[in-house]
Amino acid sequence: MWFKTLLTFVAVQAAAQSNPFRPPGPNDVRSPCPGLNSLANHGEKYTLLGDIKAKNPGFIPHNGRKITVPMVVDAFKEAMNVGADFVTAAGTIALQANPGLFSTSFDLNDVKKHNFPLEHDASLSRQDAFFNRDQSFDNDVWSQTLSHFEGLDTATIQAASDARWARENDSLAINPSVVFGARQLVVSLTETALYLSALGDPVSGAAPVPFIKSFFEQEKLPFDLGWTKPDQETNLATLGAMVSLLQLANPGAVPEGLNLGTGTVRDVFNLIDPVTGKLTTVTCALLGLC
Ligand code: HEM
Known about the structure:
Blueprint: H1 2-18, H2 34-41, H3 51-55, H4 69-80, H5 84-97, H6 139-146, H7 157-174, H8 182-199, H9 209-218, H10 236-248, H11 262-269, H12 282-286
Bound molecules: protoporphyrin IX containing FE.
């Protein structure tokens, strides 16, 4: 037992030292995703020759530019034990947000594009695009989310579900151009499942609240607070199961025709409409029609 604790301590120290946290500088770009931003904030200069990657596995370039799908698949697996099935799908969508034709990489600020097709209203820590297109961390919005964890050391499915649901209701009430249909609901539930899983446990969602605060507020992996990546992988199967639990804990109605679970999460991240089954194409996304 003591040996395992010692090994964990050594692993945490090694990760924290080889990948120190450095906030973005003036020429670095970031996204509306605390997951991608954290990996970049612990990242270093990255060369295509892979020499820095070998020294600094599990992270993406600190400048937030020229990120490929294999790079991000590798990084999330290594840093947070998030599986290739989810990250390949999300990363492929991110490529489409790059304004260049036939791009093989994306910059973190490309994925800010409103409703294209990952970014959405009612975020946990960002204002809706109607109020602020910048999509950086917003303390007022985050305070609303955080208020649902008051008095808790560790997040619960119920508290996280309530926090997400309150943000959805707030946007519906105050944003005259709000878009929040079945696709946005599934993406938003999946994001809640992601932070509960990667910072806590992919089955129970028990993530310590200080870890969650560090991740959202500083976009930092909380090595300094004792966090280590979970032993169990977060993947489409675990996310689908947690998305169902989150929605079950929620008093809100599910849009007609939407069945939540692994298949639905997979569909949405493969750009298939979760209600009609139709594939979202880049053209219809660009025209804002889907
Ligand atoms: C290549 C993989 C990924 C891409 C392209 C991606 C992209 C995005 C984008 C565009 C958003 C903004 C959605 C919005 O408007 O609120 C977002 C939000 C989010 N992402 Fe990621 N993401 C990826 C992987 C991950 C992973 C592995 C985690 C795990 C911890 C994560 C955690 C989150 C969370 C918690 C949010 C919600 C932020 C908020 O509501 O304020 N993401 N992601």
